[in-house]
Each structure stands twice: as C-alpha cells, then as structure tokens.
Design goal:
By secondary structure, the protein is an alpha+beta fold. It contains five helices and five strands.
C-alpha cells in the first residue's frame, strides 16, 4: 500500500471522529486518544497536518480562544450557516449550541451601527453552562441538602 493511501486512511479516521462528535469542539489530544482506541497510531504532528488539509477543504472549523489553551476543531460539513449565528459552548459537557436568535442579530447590528465594529460570528463563542447541566447541578445540589 502506498504512503498516500495510508495518509488518506488516517485522514478518514480523523474526519469520522469529527463527524461523530460534530456537536462538540474537540482537541488534537481527544482525536489522538480516539485513534489509539481504533489501533490507528498517528503522531500529533500528523494529526495537525491532516486537520490543516481538512480546514483547507472547508470540512473542519478551528476555534482558538486564547494563547494558553489548545485549539479546538469541529466538523463543518461546508455549512455556511455557522457564519450567521453565535455559538454557545457548555463548560461542563462540552456541547456546542448554535444560537439562532433575532436578539443576537440585533446585538450585532447595534455593535456595527453604534460602534463601527463587525462581529465575526464564525469565531465568536460564548461559554457557560447549558440547561441540561444546569438542571443536573440543581438536582445534585438538592440531593446534597
């Protein structure tokens, strides 16, 4: 088997993992752990190289929050819709929620009209706790009391 086919298999395995976890932002470490469980041994550098190719094709989105945490990746399926709304990420379960809300759109218009600043929705993520985790926390709190 040629080296090219081997790389393609690795890239397909990475893409499969991203597709199966498309509601989450995943790190290279999580991808590496998955590949190990599938007995596909791939170095971190190779994973980044494959992710770069998937980014170029528009199949994957990359989120970088700050200079101290690892970049996160998400399967995009060439979905331009993600450029038109905010994302909400739960800090407990990691779920990614697409916020389609007219109030958010109004806020973006206000920021542009009043402050001359265009918000990049593709890269804007709000962090907090989703309703499911919030309910679990309240339930757990009641259990302790």
């Amino acid at each position: 088997m040629s080296n090219n086919g081997y790389k393609t298999k690795q890239q397909q395995a990475i893409l499969k993992f991203l597709m199966n976890n498309q509601d989450s932002h995943v790190t290279v470490s999580q991808i590496s752990d998955y590949l190990e469980t599938e007995n596909t041994h791939v170095g971190v550098t190779t994973i980044y190289r494959h992710l770069d190719k998937l980014l170029e094709k528009g199949l994957v989105r990359k989120y970088t929050v700050d200079g101290t945490t690892s970049a996160c990746f998400q399967y995009s399926n060439l979905n331009a819709e993600c450029k038109q709304h905010f994302h909400l990420k739960c800090e407990k379960c990691g779920k990614l929620i697409h916020l389609n809300c007219s109030h958010a759109a109004e806020m973006c218009r206000h920021i542009y009209d009043e402050h001359g600043f265009g918000v990049d929705l593709f890269r804007t993520v709000f962090y907090g706790i989703c309703s499911e985790c919030s309910t679990k926390s309240e339930h757990n709190k009641e259990m302790v009391l």
